[in-house]
Amino acid sequence: MDYMKLNQNPMNLVIYTIILPLFFNQVNQLTSSNLNKRDMVNSKKFVEELKRHRELDGHIDIESIVTVDLQIDKLMIKDRVLSKNINGSYKKGDIIWIKGSSGAGKSTLLKLIPKFRESEGVKLNKEGIINITNKSIRSNVEYLSQNVPIIKGTLRDNLFLGKERLLEIENDLIKDPILKTIFKNINLDTVILEGGTNLSGGEKQKIAIVRALYNHSDVLILDEITSNIDKESANDILNRITDDSSNRITFIITHDDLSDRYYNTVLNL
């Protein structure tokens, strides 16, 4: 069909076929340019933020942790002093009860050992912690809190949690006294729901403890893990920890009074 018969103004043809496409192409390029520039600026800001929050790392690798020494004049968060003059020297076999009022910095103190916070007042094997690599420290330290990581999967999945599954260890787990109450109702193939919603608080803590003990870490830090669980479960956990403490340095934070059979030294904040 002849275009000139439909449209008496040939300029319209020029506008629709040439000028408008050029216009929108330029707009698209301008928009893309602005977006790319904005993305570049945001990327630079993100990289700078990562640099500011990058963990400091040491240069010395250690195979194990034999001693932990604390020599801290002031325990601080930002500009607030939590406690002063914290001193102690600990070796394998020690179970240390960390005591102090709320806000004294008990958790803050123990987070210095796995280098979750920066400090120059902690020594491992008589070496300043700042000089030791983060990886070699954290491969030898277990830090447990009330917030137990439980995944959706079998009980077996949760007990091993990424570790190699060995039949020998499975057999030991089945016989482990701390899990005896759990195995009354479920087995290794039982599916655990996301977050452990089909487990009690005590059961989740027992899984976390057994998981930590079978990692055979040199330092075990227990941060209020017996809070909000029944006394029987708490005693089961503490008995299990005490029975298997000779090759480990264990730190315990709890608001509850501890029987002296569960510790051999106290650090007061």
Please provide a brief summary of the model.
With 269 residues, the protein is α/β, with parallel strands linked by helices.
Topology:
Elements: H1 3-6, H2 10-52, E1 67-77, E2 80-91, E3 95-99, H3 106-110, E4 122-124, E5 127-128, H4 134-138, E6 141-144, E7 153-154, H5 155-160, H6 167-175, E8 191-192, H7 201-213, E9 219-223, H8 231-243, E10 249-253, E11 265-268
Parallel strand pairs: 3-10, 3-11, 6-9, 9-10
Antiparallel strand pairs: 1-2, 1-4, 4-5, 7-8
Helix pairs in contact: 7-8
Number of E-type strands = 11
Shape: globular
CATH superfamily of the largest domain: P-loop containing nucleotide triphosphate hydrolases
Work out the count of structural domains: 2
How large is the share of residues in beta strands? Answer: 15-25%
CATH fold topology of the largest domain: Rossmann fold
Q: Give the radius of gyration.
A: 30 Å
By CATH, the architecture of the largest domain is named: 3-Layer(aba) Sandwich
Side-by-side strand order of the widest sheet: 6-9-10-3-11
- Binned, the helix content reads 25-40%
Structural class: alpha/beta
How would you describe the overall organization of this protein?
The structure is a single chain. With 269 residues, the chain is of the alpha/beta class. The protein folds into 2 domains: 50 residues; 202 residues, Rossmann fold (3-Layer(aba) Sandwich). Helices cover 36% and strands 20% of the residues. The chain contains 8 helices and 11 strands. The strands form 3 sheets. The chain has a 5-stranded parallel β-sheet with strand order 6-9-10-3-11. A hairpin with a 2-residue loop joins strand 4 and strand 5. Helix 7 runs parallel beside helix 8. The longest helix has 43 residues. The protein is globular. The N and C termini lie far apart (94 Å).
